[in-house]
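Case study 2.
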Amino acid sequence: MLQRGGQILAGGGVLAPLWPVIADTGEINKAYPDRLLSIEEYTKGRINTGDIITADNVKHVKDLLEPAKYKHVKEMGRRLKILPTTTDYMRLGPWEYLEATLRNQGKARFDERQNVVTQNGKPWIGGDPFPNADTALKLFAGLTLSWGRHDSSVYAVKEKDIAHNGETDYEYNAVWVELAPVARTTVEPKPYMPEHRDKLRFNSVIFTSPDSHKGTSFLNIWPYDQHQFPELYGYLPEFRRIRQFPTNQRFEPLVPGSALYLSDAWAAGDPLHTWGNYRIIGRQPMLAGVSGGWNGRHPNWEHGLHGGPEGQSFFDSVVELVPEAIITEAEPVAYKRAPVSKKRVWFDARNHMPIAMVTYDRKGEPFRSFDGCYSLYDDGENRFMDGKHPYWSWTYVHAYDFQTGRITRLEQVREISGEHKTLVNDPSIYKRYLTRNAISSMGRV
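Prediction:
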C-alpha cells in the first residue's frame, strides 16, 4: 500500500505532498514518480496506453482493479481501454468548483455536531472543504456536500437492467436532478439561496418511460444538519397524489429490476452521520474511468456495448492509471435493518471523487458495487458547454449485484423521452423539477 509521508509502494515513492503541488502548479506530476503516472512504467511494458484489458492480460493489472471490475473482465467478458493519466487538475471537475476549492482552502471546519461550516460557523461557501483531507470523515463530508459538483444539474438518464443470463428485462428513461442551495459557486444567488440556507440539497428523480412507470417521481429535500433524514415525497400516477414516504428505508431500489439503491447514489446517498466508523484503510494506484468517457460522436451521447452472454452487459469502457486512490470504509450506524454491514469506497486522491464502491452483506460477503466514468464533455471535435467552460460530469455507471449477477447500466445522454434534456446551472431547474408541485405536474403530463 502507498502511504503518504514518503513510504514506498512497490518501488515507487511519493515525491511531494499532493495538495500543495496542485495549489501551486495545477499539475500533479511533481507529486508522483513516473511509475505512478504511466501504465507502461507500472507494468514494465506489459500493458501500454491504447491497449485493451481483457481476460487474457488482466493478470498484469489485477492489483489495480476493485473486485467487481476484475470479476467483470476475468469472468464476464468486459473490456477496458487504457487512456493516458490525466495530470491537469482543472480537467478533473467543473471549473468553478475547482476554482472555489483553491480559493477557499483552509476556511472549513466541523461544528459541534460535526457538520461542515466556515471558520465563523456559517454553512459552507463552495468547493471541496477539505482538499487535503487526512480522514475518511472529511472525504465523505466533502462528497456528501456536493455530489455532482454543480450548483444544479439535470441528468437525462437511460437505464437498462440486465439479468444474469444477459437479457435486458427492464428499461427506463428518467431525469435525475440535483440542486445545491448552499456552497454555490456559479449561479446567483451565491454562496447561498437565502430562503434555503438550512438545507443541503434538493434532489428528484422522474421517470418518463416505460408507460407503466411514466410520471413516477420522487423528491428528496435534505436538511443541512447531517444527522437528520431527508424529507421524501413521491408521486405515483396510479394514486394521482403526492405521498410522503419514510426516508430511513434507503436500501431498496426505486423501481423494479434495478441493482442500485437510493443509498448507493454517488457512494454517499445517505446523510453523513447516519453512517459511522469512517476510516482510511489504505492507499494505492488504481485503474478507473476519470476522463475520456464521453461519446460526443453519438448524437445522443450513447455508448457502445459488449460483454456478457448477449453482448449487452457493459458499456465500452475506458480507464487510466490513477496514481493514488484512498481506500475508505464506513458502516451504516443508523439503519438497524440494513442488509449492508459496511461499504468500501475508493476515492481519487486528486479530486476526492469516488471511483468505485463495494458494499458487503451482514455476513461480510461482497454484495453490490458500482463503478463509473467521469469526463470533460470535450473530445476535441465535439463539445458541450457549461457556461464559459466545457461541461464536466459522470458519463456512465455499472451497478452490479454479486449475489444475483444482475447489472444495471446507466448513461447520461443528451435527451430522453418527454423532451427532457441534460441541463447544468440553468435557473429554471428548481421550479421545473424540485418542488412538490413540479413532480405532481410532471406525473400528470
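Residues 141-444 form a domain with the outer membrane lipoprotein receptor (LolB), chain A fold (CATH 2.50.20.10).
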